[in-house]
Amino acid sequence: MSKIDFQEFVADAARNPLAQIAKYKEKNRRMVGFLCSYVPEELVYAAGLLPLRLLGRATQISLADKYLQSYCCSQVRAFMEDFLQSDYKDLEGVLFAQTCDTMQSFYDIFKKNFPDQFAFNFNFPCKVSGEVPFKYAKAELARARGELEKFIGKPIDKQDLNNAVRVYNRNRDLLDRLYLAHAANPDKIPSVTLLHAVMASMFMDKKDINKLLEAYVNEFNANGGPAAGRKKLMLVGSVNVNEDVYNVADEYGAMIVDDDICTGRRYFDGKVEAPNDEALLRRYFDRAHCPAKHRDLTSRGRYLLDLAKKSQADGVIFLYLKFCDPHAFDYPYMKDMLDKQGLRSMHMEIEQSNAPSGQVRTKMQAFIETL
Asked: For the residues of 185-219, what is the DSSP string, one character each?
């Protein structure tokens, strides 16, 4: 597969998750959806189930309005719309993880309205440091293992977990290499390919996407750090399927050099060091965490400054879903930390949609011109 073919392939996979589900259905693969990156994917994969990250894709909300208030975040409302439209009828279940209050409420609403659907909520602790939260998480992981084993009708094999850890770690390594290759070769790897590759990894069997990713990144030299001549932007936020942000950056002579978003680096950050439950949990504790989790009051801000320095970012774009309270709470102090370091930033609210936005384009252009 050529460079251009790879870019087109991951773009298609990212834009058409239902087509990926249909392909695996034809192969008689057992699939479950999951709604948060704190779901322990490796354990699900080891159970013989293909975990596929669901991102609310509905651009017009009508049916979901009967179940969720209009001030709920568009991600959750789009999830409900997709389920009510029976878009995910080929999935055997849906896995949740404790993050924000809205997602927790959505789990309860989902269970009530889809009582015949297998659903499980992984109560991942809000604090991701210390012995007590880790002990609690181990008990939750044991509960998740028990529910999965009950669902598949057999124990999860140790060798299967070993294989799952190997496959997932490989995907994380390859995505990290892709980010480095893009930073060094922005004229050959468009910024939007980062988004597409991560989303394709979410919607496909990791073994399938790993082969394509490896062949692609092997064609590039990722040494030497970020390329000169472009303004380097970082994205910070939750989930994003809006391609405009990436395309406009490239169009106006900049690039998305790195990010801290759920559909980006935060998804693949860190590795599982051993094929056992404790090591599996340790990765989820130690990786870059979202604002629904915490280590201390400023841990995300320190991580953001370190990531910006490492990527040599010229500016940071806070790309927040409307009505996302956890991110809104973190924004003031993080912006203040950036300001003190002389790093310019911009805040943009978006809705969970693929639709092009003239507002995004105008704001992006203006911000790039100030750098």
From this structure: -TTTS-THHHHHHHHHHHHS-HHHHHHHHHHHHTT
3-state secondary structure (DSSP) of residue 1: coil
Q: Dihedral of CA 112/142/45/30: which sign?
A: negative
Terminal Cα distance for the chain, rounded = 37
The model's pTM is: 0.94
Q: Where residue 90 sits, what CATH number does that domain have?
A: 3.40.50.11890
Please indicate, yes or no, if residue 200 is contained in any of the structural domains: no
189-193 long-range Cβ contacts below 8 angstroms, 24+ apart = 189/7, 189/220, 190/7, 190/246, 190/247, 190/250, 191/246, 191/247, 191/249, 191/250, 191/255, 191/256, 192/11, 192/243, 192/246, 192/247, 192/250, 193/7, 193/10, 193/11
Q: Which residue in the block uniquely carries the two structure tokens 């239902």?
A: 18
Helix axes 74-84, 101-113, angle to 10 degrees: 10
pLDDT digits (tens, 9 = 90+) for 140-190: 999 999 999 999 999 999 999 999 999 999 999 999 999 999 999 999 999
Q: Judge whether 329 and 247 are in contact, CB under 8 Å.
A: no
Q: How many domains does the chain contain in total?
A: 1
**In a domain? residue 70:** yes
- Assess whether pLDDT exceeds 90 at residue 102: no
What is d(CA 270, CA 182) in angstroms, rounded to the nearest whole number?
Answer: 19
Structure tokens belonging to residue 184? 């060094």
Cross-strand pairs, 285? none
| Count of positions (residues) in the chain | 371
Distance CA 211, CA 213 (A): 6
Reference 87, options 168, 20, 132; nearest CA is 20
pLDDT digit string, tens, across residues 316-345: 999 988 888 888 899 999 999 999 999 999
Q: How many Å apart are CA 35 and CA 354, to the nearest integer?
A: 18
Residue 39 lies in a domain: yes
Q: Which domain range does residue 82 map to?
A: 27-157
Task: Determine, yes or no, domain membership for 103.
Answer: yes
